[in-house]
Amino acid sequence: MTLGDWWRHGVIYQIYPRSFQDSNGDGIGALAGVTRRLDHLNDGTPRSLGVDAIWISPFYPSPQFDFGYDVADYTGVAPEYGTLADFDELIREAHRRGIRVIVDFVPNHTSHRHRWFVESRAGRDSPKRDWYVWRDPGPGGGPPNNWQSTFSRVGSAWTFDPVSEQYYLHSFLPQQPDLEWWNPAVRAAMNDVLRFWLDRGVDGFRIDVAHKMAKDPDLGDNPHDLGVPGARRRDEDWEPEIHEIIREFRRTIDGYEDRMAVGEVFILDPRRMVRYYGEALDELHLAFNFSFLRQPWNARAFREAVELYEDVLPEGAWPDYTLSNHDNPRARSRYDPGDGDPARGQNRARVAMLMLLTLRGTPFLYQGEEIGQADGEVPPERVVDVAGRDPERTPMQWAPGPGAGFTSGEPWLPIGREADEVNVALQQDDPGSMLSFTRRAIWYRKASAALRWGSYRPIEAGAGVFAFARTAEAEGERLVVVLEFEGRDRRLDLAAVLGTADRTAVLELSTRPGRHAGNVDLRALELGADEGIVAKLG
Fold first, then answer.
1. What are the chain's domains?
2. Are 461 and 494 in contact (CB under 8 A)?
3. Given 208, 336, 390, 530, the catalytic residue
4. What's the pLDDT score for residue 3?
5. What one-character DSSP code corresponds to residue 522?
6. Could you confirm whether 208 is annotated as catalytic?
7. What distance lies between CA 178 and its chain's CA centroid?
8. What is the pTM (predicted TM-score) of this model?
9. Which of 160, 163, 170, 100 is nearest to 133 (CA)?
10. Is 70 in the active site?
11. What are the pLDDT digits (tens) for 434-477?
């Protein structure tokens, strides 16, 4: 991997540290646990996944009202996760294996226990008062405007402070007050946070709710119907100021060699989302494509989402794709047909994985996807998250037995009920397992110029099939990817639609266990129900 291209052509693996690997039996994952499992991620051989980078969700000191996204100290490590020395050791061991490290950066808000907010709340004359968004009550004594928290259970985005008789803004929980990004001192302080972690060797940042920081300075009401054409939200995505903030982050990051930033830009219209790359590609290196993640299990839906994204990307910008993360149900659960046949759910998970690893762009995998882990079951008495995201955050399933190899103690969330059958240990040496398939696909991708940086062209292969060509002209590599979405066997004539004189191709990968590499007839290509393949053209 050469300088400057690892974030374009590598595979990035998300770690939710609280649920990845416990190291001391307290039932909570830790940074030392991540270090312990690095060989699973990449030990330099095809027995490992072969990922190129890891993104670690927040591990900073926090009262955990939003499980780390309420940061009480941006330059420390929460005791339950370890120490700064543990983080430094993780960086060293990851880099020794050729694994880059991306950390979460949460700039929109802090914890209400952060020293900045404690000082801000001390009184209207506090030097830190204007580091947060404080306003007098609106007419009648209510909140200053109609803005609502992202978490529907919270209601208003404003909380009244009886001591100072003003409201403060929180886009999420009341325990997560929003910083005032119109204040230059806030911008300077948060760029210093970036430098702190860059100096410790991190390779990049995932910027939490990157679209939220700039809001209407006049605090105008949001339209009552945001679905009306031309309706503009006033509590996020405020242009052009939001782009000025992101460009300042980029200048800080570019002051260090070979670093990157990916933004959580939760805007489902790709036309607006891609603005966060910057007109001169001087903002984010990557912006998460949540429109793709939200597609139903439908070949045409995915194809159209990809085509729209490709069409609206600024020239020279690089796409990325993901199907799961800590805030969304796992792909295995979301796309399970619910027909009582667990094999079909696993087959779809393989097709989804192959799609993710073969599209033009950077793939992000969420921990557990490599084994087809499903969402866990969390009974009411164990629910801890205000937004219902516990099922996708249940612990990583490493091995059969109590604790699933995650912990020797009581896990902070219940272990998934499939853990004895779906885990790393059982799949490690099984050539037909989801883990073995994922490893083969990633290592194949690493060796393929067409998949890492080649062109993308959709192919008409009939209803229920998503097919596309990936080509690296200079290297003379031509691949075709064919994905079956409707659960029925097919025989396809691809020779004509490919516009090639080739009648045969070489089957390189299949999601179907037991289907081996070899020549296939492009005029009568056999494709099984819920199967995906990669074939190389001559």
1. 10-110+184-218+232-444 (3.20.20.80), 115-169 (3.90.400.10), 453-537 (2.60.40.1180)
2. yes
3. 208
4. 57
5. G
6. yes
7. 23
8. 0.97
9. 170
10. no
11. 999 999 999 999 999 999 999 999 999 999 999 999 999 999 99
